[in-house]
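hey can u check if this looks right to u? its 111 residues, i copy pasted from the old doc so theres a chance i mangled smth
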Amino acid sequence: MSDDYLPGVYQQFLSRFPEVAEAQGSLARVIRETNPFDDRTDRLIKLAVAVGAEAEGAVRSNVRKALQHGANLDEVRAVALAAVTTRGFPAAIAALGWIEEVAAASAEPSH
């Protein structure tokens, strides 16, 4: 799994709106530096929010980043399963599908 994976739509955003991207990045850094959580916990929380919003891109991104910061696949799946009783079965199932796709892609050998 590459640390520098960026979806095409995000790359387009960066090139079209560099000032907005820079401001958003600065805000994200300040928030991250202000919260009391370690990187692993921070990513699992962000994953939970993304699952609740059914935000596919954010789920995929936060799965990759949570795994990079030491979460394991069972913990990532548990976040999605928790959504069954809080956000609903369809949101949880969609998130589990996205999680499995990210996990499968990360297991593929690099070319």
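The helical segments are 8-16, 18-34, 39-53, 56-68, 73-86, 89-107.
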